[in-house]
């Protein structure tokens, strides 16, 4: 009996778990640096029924991955190549091309989405609300560019993620501390005008150029670092605002060439106008996929996997999201001036009614640092309720009940 055979590139465990739950065979390609090294994760991986697991050198290029894929494909053909990691999609595209298998996006589209400078240039040719921007390659160009912007403004690397290197400048005089090596190795940078307003993300699955919105997420951002510290589904928006978002995001994805697969688009709304911040051609991170499933009943990984296999699951998604519940996630983080060491971490008092998951990334003995990027966060809680406000309050209160001592 023939069984569907999927080649999965990268490390998103919820996606791998769903593929196996669907009854499909799974071969995993991963970089060593991404593969879990702790005993807990090692045991998980050993007990997961992969057909093959291939770990590549951290320096392996796409050609090496493709060579191994071709050999395995000769032994037993793959039906699809799937990847939900930004930094591995280039490899997935090359493998798909080598094996003559379809992939959700093209190399050109990936480049436009991954490089914020290319994205802004593509949008500048169309009629979407524009954010003033400039691309700079060194400290001299950065300083010169900052003289032309109103303040506050934003500086960020064109190709980083997880809020790494994102800075909000209140005045030109602040730029001096970000010169002389601060951005060494991170150039080119993009300078953008700062847009006021609330931030949201749009969780979308596309097929043949049709873009179905599964959910709109309301985001909570640390105002100093822009690191995301909370998400809630559904976002509190009007039907008219939803239609504006749908119209703008659909135009935006078309400009970038996104026709198939998942996308996670970050936007801001100010004075009823929608501004595109950036997009990723993958499922949202930060456990937003869990919030989507709690709130709508849809597992976005299942939809994406079945779509990759040629099934039209997207037709089951309603034109307007239907929310059965509300769900919220809140991250725990440290804001001390100097690094510290956790001496104890207890969350037994945080299991309030409505809390469905508590997960700590750090443990006693680990070093914690002031919040500067996503990886600095200590852990999270997820809640559900009949409305967004209550779900958000419950998650926040649970975080406040987590007891953490440090020195």
Strand order within the widest beta sheet: 13-12-9-10-11-14-18-16
Supply the CATH superfamily name of the largest domain.
ATP-grasp fold, B domain
Beta-strand content estimate: 25-35%
Q: Uncertain regions: pLDDT < 50 for 5+ in a row?
A: none
How would you describe the oligomerization state of the chains in this entry?
single chain
C-alpha end-to-end distance: 59 Å
Q: Treating each run of at least 4 consecutive H or I residues as one helix, how many helices? A: 11
Number of strands: 19
Indicate the CATH topology of the largest domain.
Answer: D-amino Acid Aminotransferase, Chain A, domain 1
The biggest beta sheet reads: 8 strands, antiparallel
Architecture per CATH nomenclature, i.e. the level-2 architecture of the largest domain? 2-Layer Sandwich
Helices and strands in order:
Elements: E1 5-9, H1 13-21, E2 25-31, H2 39-47, E3 52-56, H3 62-75, E4 80-83, H4 89-99, H5 107-114, H6 116-124, E5 133-136, H7 139-146, E6 153-157, E7 167-169, E8 189-193, E9 198-207, E10 210-221, E11 228-233, H8 239-256, E12 261-270, E13 273-280, H9 288-296, H10 300-308, E14 326-332, E15 340-346, E16 355-360, E17 367-368, E18 379-385, H11 388-400, E19 403-406
Parallel strand pairs: 1-2, 1-4, 2-3
Antiparallel strand pairs: 5-8, 6-7, 6-8, 9-10, 9-12, 10-11, 11-14, 12-13, 14-18, 15-17, 15-19, 16-18
Helix pairs in contact: 3-4, 5-6
């Amino acid at each position: 009996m023939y069984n569907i055979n999927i080649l999965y590139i990268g490390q998103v465990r919820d996606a791998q778990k769903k593929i196996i739950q669907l009854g499909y065979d799974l071969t995993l390609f991963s970089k060593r640096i991404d593969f879990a090294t702790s005993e807990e994760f090692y045991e998980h991986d050993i007990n997961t029924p992969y057909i093959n697991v291939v770990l590549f050198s951290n320096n392996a290029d796409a050609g090496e991955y493709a060579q191994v894929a071709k050999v395995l494909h000769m032994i037993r053909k793959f039906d699809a190549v799937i990847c939900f990691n930004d930094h591995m999609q280039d490899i997935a595209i090359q493998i798909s091309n080598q094996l003559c298998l379809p992939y959700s996006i093209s190399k050109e589209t990936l480049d436009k989405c991954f490089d914020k400078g290319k994205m802004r240039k593509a949008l500048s040719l169309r009629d979407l609300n524009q954010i003033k921007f400039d691309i700079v390659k060194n400290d001299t160009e950065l300083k010169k560019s900052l003289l032309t912007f109103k303040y506050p403004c934003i500086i960020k690397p064109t190709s980083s993620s997880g809020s790494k290197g994102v800075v909000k400048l209140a005045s030109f005089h602040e730029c001096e501390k970000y010169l002389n090596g601060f951005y060494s190795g991170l150039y080119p940078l993009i300078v953008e005008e700062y847009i006021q307003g609330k931030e949201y993300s749009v969780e979308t699955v596309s097929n043949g150029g049709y873009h179905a919105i599964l959910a709109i997420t309301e985001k909570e951002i640390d105002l100093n670092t822009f690191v995301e510290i909370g998400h809630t589904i559904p976002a509190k928006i009007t039907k008219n605002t939803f239609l504006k978002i749908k119209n703008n995001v659909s135009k935006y994805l078309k400009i970038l060439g996104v026709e198939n697969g998942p996308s996670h688009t970050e936007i801001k709304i100010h004075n009823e106008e929608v501004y595109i911040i950036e997009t990723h051609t993958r499922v949202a991170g930060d456990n937003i996929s869990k919030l989507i499933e709690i709130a709508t009943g849809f597992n976005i990984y299942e939809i994406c996997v079945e779509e990759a296999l040629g099934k039209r699951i997207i037709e089951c998604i309603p034109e307007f999201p239907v929310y059965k519940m509300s769900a919220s996630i809140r991250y725990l983080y440290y804001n001390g001036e100097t690094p510290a060491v956790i001496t104890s971490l207890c969350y037994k008092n945080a299991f309030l009614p409505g809390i469905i998951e508590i997960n700590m990334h750090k443990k006693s003995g680990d070093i914690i640092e002031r919040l500067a990027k996503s990886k600095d966060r200590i852990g999270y809680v997820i809640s559900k309720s009949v409305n967004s406000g209550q779900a958000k309050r419950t998650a926040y209160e649970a975080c406040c009940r987590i007891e953490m001592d440090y020195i």
